[in-house]
Write a structure and sequence with these properties.
By secondary structure, this protein is α+β, with helices and mostly antiparallel strands. The protein has two helices and five strands; from the N terminus they run E-E-H-E-H-E-E. It has helices at residues 38-52, 68-76, and strands spanning 8-17, 21-29, 58-64, 80-88, 94-103. It has a three-stranded antiparallel beta sheet with strand order 3-5-4, with helices on one face. Strands 1-2 form a two-stranded antiparallel sheet.
Length: 108
């Protein structure tokens, strides 16, 4: 029997910050599968899931400012940078993050 292989996953919190719409909390693609449109497909599926669970105009995410590869991908997909903040990790480490938002009425 052939094993199933996971290529990535997405996690969305519909109520994390109501003023900003749903939060794209996690989006991960296996490193050896990046650049093949899997992340974009997960985002499209996430948008469809959000539409099935409520009426929202936009959604948002937070990215570590130093994570330029991820920031470039999101910007390429039409996400717009905005607020900046300091995130406090569970171990007490602080690091700067940037909020990105995206219309839920647009198709990537």
């Amino acid at each position: 029997m052939e094993e199933e292989t996971y290529l990535g996953f997405i996690c969305i919190d519909l109520l994390a910050e109501p003023g900003w719409g749903p939060l794209l909390d996690n989006l991960h693609v296996r490193p050896d599968r990046k650049g093949r449109g899997i992340g974009q497909r997960l985002i499209q599926e996430g948008m469809a899931w959000i539409h099935a669970h409520g009426s929202f105009d936009r959604w948002h995410l937070w990215v570590v400012e130093a994570n330029t590869p991820s920031r470039s991908v999101y910007e390429h997909l039409g996400w717009v940078p905005g607020d900046r903040a300091i995130h406090l990790a569970p171990d007490g480490t602080e690091y700067p993050v940037c909020r990105y938002s995206h219309s839920l009425n647009e198709v990537n």
